[in-house]
Design goal:
Blueprint lengths: L5 H6 L15 E7 L5 E7 L1 H4 L4 E5 L24 E2 L5 E7 L2 H8 L3 E6 L6 H6 L8 E5 L2 H4 L5 E9 L11 E6 L5 E5 L4 H12 L6 E5 L14 H14 L3 E4 L2 H7 L6 E9 L5 E13 L5 H10 L9 E10 L13 H19 L3 H7 L18 H12 L1 H14 L3 E14 L9 E7 L5 E5 L8 H13 L6 E3 L2 E2 L14 H26 L15 E4 L2 E4 L2 E6 H10 L5 E6 L5 E3 L4 E3 L3 E14 L5 E13 L4 H19 L31 E8 L22 H14 L7 E3 L3 H8 L6
Parallel strand pairs: 1-12, 8-30, 10-11, 14-15, 18-19, 28-29
Antiparallel strand pairs: 1-5, 2-4, 2-6, 3-5, 7-15, 8-13, 9-10, 9-12, 11-20, 13-14, 16-27, 17-18, 17-24, 21-22, 22-23, 25-26, 27-28
The chain binds ligand MTE and dioxothiomolybdenum(VI) ion.
The site of dioxothiomolybdenum(VI) ion (MOS) has 10 residues, from loops.
């Protein structure tokens, strides 16, 4: 089934935040943010800004009626700076004016006196100074200290991975409207409507039931709107609260890039030990996460780095420690993969370094160590592994050795162009690692004409979750999809939602929808019995006594005179409820953060990709020739959407690993602050070929209709592009010493190509 949004997207009719019809009297907001990364806020002067015609009011921290606090996991982040600023871009004042242009112009006239304080941008420096967001955590299995003596080869090193700008096409924004009795409705471009609601209530000193948050869809979130959409929703609510007027704020791209956090940069150390047979016996890693100035989601992101530190490999002895380091950058946040990619990069670098030392392809080590079913992860969960299946199928379909020798052949015959190839197996755990967040609700109404309305906590952000919700209802009821409408995500209809994140939205909300539909179906069956269409207890036959197929009622496999609509109407006449609010939590998951052991994931997603690149050895530029993968979809319920998620994820992952380069200067100012200085993949830089082969498994799992979560895992195939580029450079300049430092930009490629020996 096609993504149900494709029709309105194509016609420009989809409603994003900026398309919500604007009410008469709406005011517009813009933020004055800190020009300094760290300092004492001595005074804020708004007098000149207030003289700009059309400026209504300018709010600062002292206008906050409740708590000036937006920190979710750790209460360490002010909405508006009161006494100190902690990053360039930290909101200080909120200008409200009669137009967007006036608000933005007036912001330039706000003046702040800030006494600068020392700025830290480097996570290792922050750690040295004891600036940690939370105490460090260590995941441990076996005993690495004992294992080193049994290793034939031991390799040590360090890595850097840079951040990544989310670059959702729709920038952050919100629109607040006053309601009766002091209530406020906030339209928000957020992945977490409940987070916006909860924080608005906290900041305004109101109860949550007076705040309604409504989200139609996002023009992309990618994690950037899981926590960081809250600021704008709450700021609009604050202004609306005081002025009793609708207030809207849709951020300019440069405001968005400057004021919001990104993927966490990591600086890491590794030590890996292998046996003569290339079995990885021991692995140690230390991760220094650049959290930025406040916790935001950093503790959870850091945790996932530890969960995925061994990627797709079984390693009997692991010690991995992570530090969440407080620096003076905008608080970094969720980004597709949520710390997983950063952890996986380090083990891939360790393997690559060992392979370079042994003069063998990394794939020889990778293949030997893939997780098997029953192997234990460092956190105690036992794998139900598809890692070998994916790898073997990749080999069977694409012939790994042949591809590798083709690359060698090409390189032997070409001087100015070199190819590189790398394999990238992935393993990604599905579930929020915070167990309590794994819950969802769905509200299903069947109307008397047989049409169906669904509301869930899931937010549509391009990943197709609404289409999947619709498919669930269509399949359970066996009715035409055109009868079903998926409604906006609204905190009045579905309360206490978890954000749409962790790739788990379709599973959690889909299962809740399935339960709701089955419950209604049960009642309809009873109505069928009461109407004597169905005689109860006909006996135990193979054929289901009651069934709806393509909108017709079947009894004992025989089509009756009754349609879906007729039965629905009969139920209504009998005063039977045609609505259901269902609740779902996945069974069997638990985790003990004290012991760092448990069974945190409902299941894992596996896959293997082969990436081939070509570099131009005169200019340092490159192309990704192909990404060929075998991906573990379970049993995909929507191949078109799932393939789209794979392709998008791969391109986004390649962008992170190759061309996207965030630059903050030593003063903590973002230098790559616009699309002219920050390059994301465009149509010319996507791989010339992406082939995804689905590993279809019919094994039971906790996914909705056994269709495994697909939102984040494919991003990590992009890591293969980094290692393929390294290999290509090495083919030209074998003596190049290339630090494990991503992204591998064309500049870095060029420098390494012509790095003199012994540099
Ligand atoms: N796909 C599109 N088109 N736009 C997005 O913003 N976000 C990704 C992924 N795919 C995203 C996307 C992220 S970060 C997550 S966690 C999942 O979608 C969330 O949706 P799901 O739980 O329904 O997979
Ligand atoms: Mo996705 S990073 O979990 O929003």
């Amino acid at each position: 089934m096609k993504n149900i949004d494709s029709y309105t997207h194509l016609r420009g009719e989809s409603i994003y935040l900026d398309d919500v019809p604007v009410l008469n009297g709406t005011l517009f907001a813009s933020v004055f943010d800190s020009p300094v990364a760290h300092g004492k806020l001595v005074s804020v002067d708004i007098t000149e800004a207030m003289t700009v015609p059309g400026v209504i009011r300018i709010f600062t921290a002292k206008d906050i009626p409740g708590e000036n606090q937006i920190g979710g996991i750790v209460p360490d982040e002010e909405l508006l700076a009161s006494t100190h600023v902690h990053f360039c871009g930290m909101p200080i004042a909120l200008v409200i004016a009669t137009s967007d242009e006036i608000a933005k112009a007036a912001v330039k006239k706000v003046k702040a006196v800030i006494e600068p304080l020392p700025v830290i941008t480097d996570p290792r420096e922050a750690k040295e100074k004891g600036e940690l967001i939370i105490p460090p955590r260590t995941f441990k299995s076996g005993d690495t200290a004992m294992a080193w003596s049994q290793c034939e080869y031991i390799v040590e090193g360090n890595t850097e991975t840079n951040g990544q700008e989310h670059l959702y096409i729709e920038t952050q924004g919100a629109y607040a409207q006053p309601q009766e009795n002091g209530a406020i409705r906030v339209y928000s471009s957020t992945q977490g409507p409940t987070a916006v609601q909860r924080t608005a209530a906290r900041v305004l000193g109101m109860s949550m039931n007076f705040i309604e948050v409504d989200t139609t869809r996002l023009g992309g979130g990618f994690g950037g709107k899981e926590d960081q959409a809250t600021t704008w929703g709450v700021l609009c609510a604050l202004a609306s609260f005081h002025l009793k007027k609708p207030v809207k704020y849709s951020l300019h791209r440069m405001e968005d890039m400057r004021m919001t956090g990104k993927r966490h940069p990591y600086s890491s150390d590794f030590k890996i030990g292998l046996t003569k047979e290339l079995k990885i016996l021991a692995y140690e890693a230390t991760f220094y996460q650049n959290a930025g100035a406040a916790a935001d989601l950093s503790p959870a992101v850091m945790e996932r780095t530890l969960f995925h530190c061994n990627n797709s490999y079984f390693i009997p002895n692991v010690t991995a420690t992570a530090y969440s380091c407080r620096t003076h950058l905008p608080p970094n946040t969720a980004f597709r993969g949520f710390g997983g990619p950063q952890g996986m990069f380090v083990v891939e670098a360790a393997i690559a370094k060992a392979a370079e030392l042994l003069k063998i392809p990394a794939s020889a080590i990778q293949e030997k160590n893939l997780l098997k079913t029953g192997d234990e992860f460092p956190y105690g969960q036992k794998a139900e592994s598809e890692a070998n299946e994916c790898w073997n199928k990749t080999d069977e379909l694409y012939n790994i050795e042949k591809m590798q020798s083709d690359v060698e052949l090409f390189n032997a015959g070409n001087k100015l162009f070199k190819k590189g190839i790398a394999l990238m197996p992935i393993c990604f755990g599905i579930s929020f690692t915070k167990t309590l967040m794994n819950q969802a609700r769905s509200l299903v109404h069947v109307y008397t004409d047989g049409s169906v309305g669904i509301s869930t906590g899931a937010v549509e952000m391009g990943q197709g979750v609404n289409t999947k919700m619709l498919q669930v209802a269509a399949r359970v009821f066996s009715i035409d999809p055109s009868r079903i409408k998926v409604n906006t995500t609204n905190t009045h209809r579905i309360a206490n939602t978890s954000p749409t994140a962790a790739s788990a939205a379709a599973d959690l909300n889909g299962k809740a929808t399935e339960i709701a539909c089955r419950e209604i179906l049960k009642r309809l069956r009873q109505v069928a019995e009461d109407e004597k269409i169905l005689i109860a207890d006909i006996g135990k036959t193979e054929i289901p006594p009651f069934e709806i197929k393509d909108e017709w009622i079947y009894v004992n496999g025989k089509k009756t005179e009754w349609t879906w609509t007729k039965l629905v109407m009969a139920a209504y006449i009998k005063r039977v409820s045609l609505s259901e609010l269902a609740h779902y939590t996945p069974p069997g998951i638990h985790f003990d953060p004290g012991k760092e052991k448990g069974h945190p994931f409902a299941y894992h997603v596996y896959g293997t990709a082969i990436t081939t690149v070509t570099i131009d050895c005169i200019r340092g530029i490159y192309e990704v020739d192909s990404v060929k993968a075998v991906h573990d979809f379970g049993s995909s319920m929507n191949t078109m959407i799932d393939m789209g998620q794979c392709e998008g994820g791969i391109v986004q992952g390649i962008g992170w690993m190759t061309m996207e380069e965030i630059v903050y200067d030593k003063e903590g100012k973002l230098r790559s602050n616009a699309l002219s200085t920050y390059k994301v993949p465009d149509i010319y830089s996507v791989p010339k070929e992406i082939t995804i082969h689905p590993l279809e498994t019919q094994k039971d799992n906790l996914a909705i209709f056994r269709s495994k979560a697909v939102g984040e895992p494919p991003l990590m195939y992009g890591i293969g592009a980094y290692f393929a580029l390294r290999n290509a450079v090495k083919a030209f300049n074998p003596s190049a010493v290339i630090p494990y430092d991503a992204p591998m930009t064309p500049e870095k490629v060029l420098m390494s190509l012509y790095q003199p020996p012994n540099a």
